[in-house]
Amino acid sequence: MTEETLSFQAEVARLLNIVVHSLYSEKEIFLRELISNASDACDRLRYQALTEPGLLAEEPELRLRIRLDNGARTITVADNGIGMNRAELIENLGTIARSGTTAFLGQLSGDKAKDLPLIGQFGVGFYSAFMVAERVEVFSRKAGEAQGWRWSSEGSGDFTIGEAADVARGTRIVLHLRADAEEYLERSRIEHIVKTYSDHIGLPILLAEGAEGALTAINSGAALWTRPRAGVSAEQYREFYHHAAHAFDEPWASLH
Ligand code: ADP
Ligand code: MG
């Protein structure tokens, strides 16, 4: 199978350089960003399936899966949402289409102390995976299409893309962890991160350890507004606002 090597757009290469070499302390937000994308991908498929129900056929229940593999030192985040074809992988993961990332780059001063906190404030989306991973592999197959693809990068200048066999509908992201990021192989750590940043996600998030480990749900899987107000923290309201509004500022107020 042929694999091609392509270059990142210059702005992406610049962003990746900052992300990879940053000493940003809250690297755990990578998981929030990947879960947010996976959830968006499921929402998009659900919406498209309103007019094309056949798209959901092979796997009607939308869900997110996280798998921790201590042996391989990988974290895998998989969704069965809309997926991406070759052109979309190149466009979406190789160029900057995103307002938040452009805003991040626009705010950079060149002074590390001032620039680092911006990673957390604006979020660097998918690219935050490179804060914890020395190599990121993305397997994806678009709903309604037969061919799957593998995208892979070490976050420096270029990425490869090629055909892949047996890819399930949606997107599976494999993070090959850096030596200093092995703490994210701990189940309790992952559960805590998901509770903190992603508990508003209204889809099941299932976690498993090892290739064969059983999947168990680690989020409430219920929308915030269907829960008692007393069970929702200020941080959860804030994360929900950021996710739903694609915004990076503080909400003015919250009304339950
Ligand atoms: P944003 O989510 O703000 O658009 P990201 O950097 O997080 O920015 O992601 C870039 C783009 O890559 C997304 O807009 C989406 O088109 C695509 N993408 C990322 N992850 C997935 C996924 N799991 N499934 C489908 N598309 C994805
Ligand atoms: Mg995103």
Topology readout:
Layout: E1 3-7, H1 10-21, H2 29-48, E2 64-69, E3 74-79, H3 86-94, H4 99-107, H5 112-122, E4 133-141, E5 148-153, E6 158-164, E7 170-177, H6 187-197, E8 205-209, E9 216-217, H7 234-245
Parallel strand pairs: 2-8
Antiparallel strand pairs: 1-6, 2-3, 3-7, 4-5, 4-7, 5-6, 8-9
Helix pairs in contact: 4-5
The chain binds adenosine-5'-diphosphate and magnesium ion.
Write out key terms for the chains shown.
Heat Shock Protein 90, alpha+beta, 7 helices, binds adenosine-5'-diphosphate, binds magnesium ion, 33% helix, single chain, 256 residues, nine-stranded mixed beta sheet
Descriptive notes:
This protein has 256 residues and is of the alpha+beta class. Strands 1-6-5-4-7-3-2-8-9 form a nine-stranded mixed beta sheet, covered by helices on one side. It has helices spanning 10-21, 29-48, 86-94, 99-107, 112-122, 187-197, 234-245, and strands at residues 3-7, 64-69, 74-79, 133-141, 148-153, 158-164, 170-177, 205-209, 216-217. Strand 8 and strand 9 form a beta hairpin. Helix content is 33%, strand content 21%. It has one domain (4-224): Histidine kinase-like ATPase, C-terminal domain (Heat Shock Protein 90). Magnesium ion is lined by residues 33, 36-37, 125.
